[in-house]
Amino acid sequence: MTKIVIYSLIVLILVSCNGYSQKTDPKSADSSQIEKIDTITKLRSDGTKEFEVQTKNGFKTGSGFLFDRNENIVGLKHFENDTLNGFGLLLYENTFKPQYLYESNNGKRDGVLIDFYENGVIKSFRSSDLFNDSQHIKFHENGTIKEIGKTKKGKANGIWLYFDNNGILEKKVEYENGNIKK
């Protein structure tokens, strides 16, 4: 009987010591949280990588990369807390030169959109939202200015300037709601 009492006391002491050793100070638990870093990879049906982005605690974060079928990087999208925020870039798959450079805010294309010719020269520069008020600039393939104007609710509005291949002003046209003003 004394042996049973002694064994019971030993077990109780061990259990209470074990329970005590696992208690933590709530303040120290908050400051020592571990971030879980992982990667999301999207594959095409043929098994080649199409997209890859790092996650932090389950949220897409940083640059996500787009891949061609040979798994060369052909673009990127920037994420913050699982939402598109910042600049994105799409490349021509045959030259790896920029095709589009765009800005996203809160998951939507919002801000600047730059379109490039395949030779790398800027084709146009505009607000990425075509259906609101914006500025619009186009360039000839040789890099000289082609046209410049504003839009209102997505339609040409105000004075637009048009230039020849040498950058010489050819004409001014005034628009109102997309129609030439008389």
TrEMBL record:
This is MORN repeat variant. It comes from Aequorivita echinoideorum.
